[in-house]
Design goal:
Blueprint (H helix, E strand, L loop, with lengths): L2 E3 L1 H17 L3 H13 L3 H20 L9 E9 L2 E3 L5 H13 L11 E2 L6 E2 L7 E7 L4 E8 L1 H4 L3 E5 L5 H8 L11 E8 L2 H11 L6 H7 L4 H14 L14 E9 L6 E8 L5 E6 L27 E4 L5 H4 L7 E10 L2 H12 L14 E3 L24 H10 L4 E4 L5 H9 L4 E3 L5 H5 L2 E8 L8 E15 L6 H13 L8
Parallel strand pairs: 1-3, 2-6, 9-10, 13-14, 14-15, 15-16, 16-17
Antiparallel strand pairs: 2-7, 4-5, 7-12, 8-11, 9-11, 14-19, 17-19, 18-19
Length: about 500
C-alpha cells in the first residue's frame, strides 16, 4: 500500500518541530540535569546548573528560545519506499521551507545564524536556511524524521581523528575532551561515531546525539556489548576530568555518551566526536499520511523544583561609575551583579573595528568603548513588550585575537562572554590589568530578563551581530580571568579533578 505524504503536512511538521524544540528541552535531558544538580558539590557548577534549569522552565512557560543561538538545522529523513510525496519540489526544498516558516514566525522569531559564501562575504540568509539534510530510503510506508537545531558553540568543538586499528578510542577521547574547552556549554552529551569512512564517522556522531539519555538505566542493568562498555568507560573518565558545568570545575561534565559504529576498512579506525550543549534541541516524529505531526508539550512537573537566585555573596557593580581599581580587586570565581550600560559585539563587529583602526579611521559616531565593558552576544529579536529577545553569551575564545587591539586602542575596560580565554587573550588581559567575565551559556532567557533597554549603536546592517547598547540591572556574571591573568577555567577543573578521586562514587 502506498502512503501519500502531502507537501504542506511535511513543511508544517518541520516548522512546528523547530518551534517546539526552541523552547522545550527534551524531558530526558531535564531529568538528567536535575539529578546532576542534586549530586553536584561544586558551588560554582551548582549555581550554573540552577541557572540553566530555571531558564529552561521559563522558556517552556513563555515559549521563547532556550538559547539566543537557535542553531543550524540538521535533519535525518528516512523515507519509506512505499511513500510518495504530492510535490514536484525536492525534499531539501521542503525542509528549507519548513525552516523558513519556523525561524520567521512572528510569535516566536528565532535567530537567523546561517551565512552564505562562508569563505567570502559571509552574508546572512535572514531565514536560517539552508538546513543540512541527510536522506535515506528504507522499507516501509512512513516517513521518519529526526531533527535538531545545533548551536555553533558546541558544533565548533567537533573533533575527528583517523586512529590506527590498535589505538584506544577511550584514550583519544580523554586526551581530546580537555582541548575542547568549555565553549560547548557542559554539562551535555558526547556523540561518538566509530568506523566507516571519515565522513561516515562524522554523520554517525551527529546521529548518535538524537538518541535519548539512558546512562542511568545502562549502568543499572550493565553493558551488553562492547559499545555499551565504551559508553560507560568514557562517561566515567570524562566526568573524572573535573571540567564541570560551564568549565567551572565540578562533578558533571557529561550526562551521557552516545556511540554509533559501522564496519570499516582493515587499515582504518575513524573516530568522530561531537558534543551537544546545555541547550540541546532535538526531536523525532513520523508521518503516516494522516496529517502533520503532533507534538505534545511536557508537563511542568517534569522540571525539578529548582529556582535560581543570586548568591548573597554577589557584589553589586555599577557599570556607569566603575574604576580600574574596582576591576582589579576582583578574583576568579567572584560572582557579580552588573547594573548600568554596556556595549555588545562579536565576530563581525570586531572585524569591522579592526578594519577601521588599521585604516586609521575613527569608529562610528557615538561608539566609544572608553572605560566600558563589551558583552559578546548576538540576541534574538524581541516580541511583545520585550526590549530584547533571549541574549545569552557567545564563546569568548573566538574574540581572543582581537583582545589586545580592543584593550590597547579603544579604551575598553573589560569583557563578558562564555567559556575560557586562550593564552593570547589572557596575556593581553594581564598586561592591561583588565578582566574577563562569563555569563552562563544555556541561560539566555534568564539573562535577557536583566536587560532593561536596548538600542543599536553601530553596524545595523550586521543584524544580530550589530553593536548594541544594553542597559542592565543585576545581570549575573562570574569573574573568569582577573587582572593578574588567573583563570577560573584553569583553577576550577584542576581543583575538582584532584578532589573527585576522594569523593565517594554515587551511581547515576
Amino acid at each position: 500500500m502506498t502512503t501519500l505524504i502531502r507537501e504542506n503536512d511535511f513543511i508544517q511538521s518541520i516548522a512546528d518541530s523547530l518551534q517546539f524544540i526552541s523552547y522545550y528541552h527534551p524531558v530526558d535531558y531535564i531529568k538528567a540535569l536535575g539529578h546532576a544538580y542534586e549530586l553536584e558539590e561544586s558551588e560554582a557548577a551548582k549555581d550554573a546548573i540552577a541557572q540553566i534549569l530555571t531558564n529552561s522552565r521559563m522558556c517552556a512557560e513563555g515559549h521563547r528560545p532556550i538559547c539566543q543561538d537557535t542553531g543550524i538545522v540538521v535533519v535525518f529523513v528516512k523515507v519509506g519506499m512505499n511513500c510518495r510525496f504530492d510535490s514536484q519540489k525536492s525534499l531539501e526544498h521542503l525542509v528549507n521551507e519548513g525552516v523558513r516558516q519556523a525561524y520567521t514566525n512572528p510569535l516566536n522569531p528565532l535567530r537567523s545564524s546561517i551565512l552564505s559564501d562562508p569563505a567570502g562575504a559571509r552574508k546572512n540568509t535572514r531565514d536560517n536556511t539552508p538546513a543540512v539534510v541527510h536522506v535515506s530510503l528504507v522499507p516501509g510506508n512512513e516517513v521518519s524524521v529526526d531533527i535538531a537545531a545545533k548551536g555553533g558553540g558546541s558544533e565548533n568543538k567537533s573533533k575527528f581523528v583517523m586512529l590506527n586499528p590498535s589505538d584506544s578510542v577511550v584514550d583519544w577521547v580523554i586526551k581530546t575532551v580537555p582541548t575542547m574547552g568549555s565553549g560547548w556549554c557542559p554539562p551535555g552529551m558526547l556523540g561518538i561515531g566509530i568506523g566507516g569512512s571519515a565522513e561516515k564517522a562524522m554523520i554517525l556522531a551527529k546521529e548518535a546525539l538524537m538518541e535519548p539519555i539512558d546512562m542511568a538505566e545502562l549502568k543499572q542493568r550493565g553493558p551488553k556489548s562492547r559499545v555499551e562498555e565504551l559508553r560507560i568507560e568514557i562517561y566515567d573518565k570524562v566526568n573524572a576530568l573535573g571540567i564541570g558545568a560551564q568549565g567551572l570545575g565540578g562533578l558533571s561534565t557529561v550526562l551521557d555518551v552516545k556511540i554509533l559504529d559501522y564496519p570499516t576498512h582493515a587499515a582504518s579506525l575513524p573516530v568522530a566526536m561531537i558534543p551537544n550543549c546545555a541547550a540541546t534541541r532535538h526531536i523525532h516524529f513520523t508521518l503516516t499520511g494522516e496529517g502533520p505531526a503532533l507534538f505534545t508539550p511536557p508537563s511542568l512537573t517534569d522540571w525539578p523544583k529548582v529556582t535560581w537566585s543570586p548568591s548573597p555573596n554577589s557584589r553589586h557593580v555599577n557599570l556607569d561609575h566603575i574604576s580600574a581599581a574596582e576591576v582589579q580587586s576582583w578574583k576568579p570565581g567572584d560572582t557579580l551583579l552588573l547594573s548600568g550600560k554596556l556595549l555588545t559585539g562579536r565576530d563581525a563587529a570586531h572585524q569591522r573595528i579592526q578594519q577601521l583602526l588599521n585604516q586609521g579611521q575613527p569608529l562610528p559616531e557615538g561608539l566609544d568603548f572608553t572605560g566600558r565593558f563589551i558583552y559578546y552576544v548576538g540576541p534574538v529579536d524581541p516580541v511583545g513588550d520585550e526590549v530584547v529577545g533571549p541574549a545569552g553569551p557567545t564563546t569568548a575564545t573566538r574574540m581572543d585575537k582581537f583582545t589586545h587591539m580592543m584593550l590597547s586602542q579603544t579604551g575598553l575596560l573589560g569583557m563578558i562572554g562564555k567559556a575560557e580565554r586562550g593564552p593570547v587573550a589572557i596575556e593581553a588581559i594581564r598586561q592591561h590589568r583588565s578582566v574577563s567575565l562569563i555569563a552562563v551559556g544555556g541561560a539566555a532567557y534568564l539573562v535577557a530578563k536583566a536587560i532593561r533597554a536596548s538600542r543599536v549603536v553601530a553596524f545595523p546592517e550586521l543584524g544580530m551581530e550589530a553593536i548594541y547598547e544594553f542597559t542592565v540591572e543585576n545581570m549575573p556574571v562570574t569573574v573568569a580571568v582577573d587582572s593578574l591573568g588567573e583563570s577560573i577555567h584553569h583553577l576550577g577543573p584542576k581543583k575538582w579533578q584532584s578532589k573527585i578521586g576522594t569523593i565517594p562514587v554515587v551511581s547515576v
